[in-house]
Fold this protein.
Amino acid sequence: MAAAALWLSACGDGYSVEGGLVWRPRPSDDDARVIVTVTKSQLNTWRQQQPLHSQQQPLAGLSPQAQQALARLRLSAPGQCEAGATVYELRLTDASGAQRYRSANWACEPGADRELNGYIATEDLQRLGELLAATPRSGNHP
């Protein structure tokens, strides 16, 4: 946790993944209460998704491998929006549940990125979700 906290706090007023993962201004002492959530879904139609699995962990409880995966997320172009496609979403929230960051690996329409803070590589989100699932914790969601 110390390495992730150092990496995150070193970014000043926000977190950065290759210059892309950035938090809005926040209190400097809230890192330990950050919640990391990765949701895996399947696109049923052009714009509708069916959640399949969601993993949620407090940043303070991430395994060293999950901390590294979070620190090494790479930005990418959005994936195609096709029925049946498996898609991922990353959310970072504070202790109150307020969303600080939201990203995905896909987009269905032009301008969708106004609601997102960039696109993360599919394999990175998939790996982070797997690592969150492997971290013991009460509160993993099906």
Notes: Helices lie at 2-9, 64-71, 122-134.
